[in-house]
Each structure stands twice: as C-alpha cells, then as structure tokens.
Design a protein that fits this description.
alpha+beta, 5-stranded antiparallel sheet, two-stranded antiparallel ribbon
C-alpha cells in the first residue's frame, strides 16, 4: 500500500514510512498539507488532462478555461486528498495543487482565480 500511495503522490516512491500522532508525512520529508503552484507554457504536456472542465464566471470573463479534480486515498478512517485546479490561457497553463487531509476545493479555485487575474492584468 505504501508503494502504491507513493506513486500516486507526485510520482515519488516511499522508501520508509513515518508515523506520528496527528501528522502524516511522506518519505521525502514533507509534512502534509503541501501546496504547489506551477506556471507552464500552454504547449507543455498537461499533468491533469483527464479532469473535467468547470465553469468559473471570473475566469470565463477573462476568456480562459478551467479544469478541476482530484483523488482520495483512504486508509481506515483517514483520508488524504490530492486536488488540483488548472487554468488554461493562451499565454500559460497555471496549476494549483494541494495534498491535504481535508478537501479544499474553494481555496484552490480562489487561489487560481487570483493568480490568473494578476497574471493577465
């Protein structure tokens, strides 16, 4: 199970498992939650190409497309969510993703809208 989870989370394999009360950590030493923002050329291969397109009025007004999705890894009563929000503009592709023990759909969307608005102004 640990090896399968390692492949799901950022493509890194688990060498060891670290457990402590109230905390989930990965073998490469990053505590959860983690967040990342990636800005790429629109021609770069998409990381999350299977995510459904979502309608966000603020982004539609800017003439860009958005995708949102994620995965849930559940072990017993605990869950780990890997979520992403992707904005596809003519000039760039912006990805905001997060791994957390809580779903944060609204936070990811708001961050992506704010960054896209800033980049396009």
């Amino acid at each position: 199970m640990a090896a399968a989870m390692g492949a799901l989370i950022k493509g890194k394999k688990f060498d060891q498992r670290y457990d402590s009360a109230g905390k989930v950590t990965c073998s490469w030493g990053k505590a959860v939650p983690t967040a990342a923002v990636t800005i790429a050329l629109p021609s770069a291969p998409p990381t999350y190409k299977d995510f459904p397109v979502v309608e966000v009025p603020e982004l539609t007004a800017l003439g860009v497309e958005a995708q949102s999705g994620g995965t849930e890894i559940a072990v017993g009563e605990r869950s780990l969510y890997n979520q992403a929000f992707v904005v596809i503009a003519p000039q760039f592709r912006l990805t905001v993703d997060q791994t957390s023990e809580e779903r944060r759909d609204d936070d990811l969307r708001e961050a992506a809208v704010a960054l896209t608005t800033w980049l396009m102004s």
